Amino acid sequence: MQQTLYLVRHTRPLIEAGICYGQLDVGLADSFAAEAAAVAASLPTPQLILSSPLQRSHRLAAYLAQIYDCELRCDERLKEMHFGDWEGRAWNDIERSELEAWSADILNFTPPHGESALQLTQRVSALLDELAHLPLQRIALVAHGGSMRAVLAHAAGIPLSTTLSWQIDFGSVVAVRRNPQRRV
What is the mean pLDDT of the chain? Predict the structure, then answer.
């Protein structure tokens, strides 16, 4: 049985551009209703919706679950990468040396009191391994740019760093088809 995962990025958050927000639980912009309707129009009917518990994802997931009358579950593993002490700060205000160290080892560098991209990838991969055992063909994952990149890297069998240049817009939907009998 082929399984399709629909990766849905949350809609535009209510935060100033240029701020590192990672796992900060920020709200959504006033454009939510229009953006959510556009997502719903482009999403095939899911059998299950899994969501990050952060409100910017969960609010969209709840909206979609109501429209499609399907089960909604929250999963901590879909949260955005935890940027620790960087969260809530302007990227321009973060120590240049820390950003350079992160850039030099994007997978293993851990922001102070945060998590590494490797840790993000491991938690997302564990979720994907569990989903492979579900007898469902269409599952929507409502999440964040970082966790979506981790899913895409895992599915394509490529390094997470390869996905960093891929544009994943707010409110976008990306389909990943996989055969659960094979590791993705």
Answer: 95
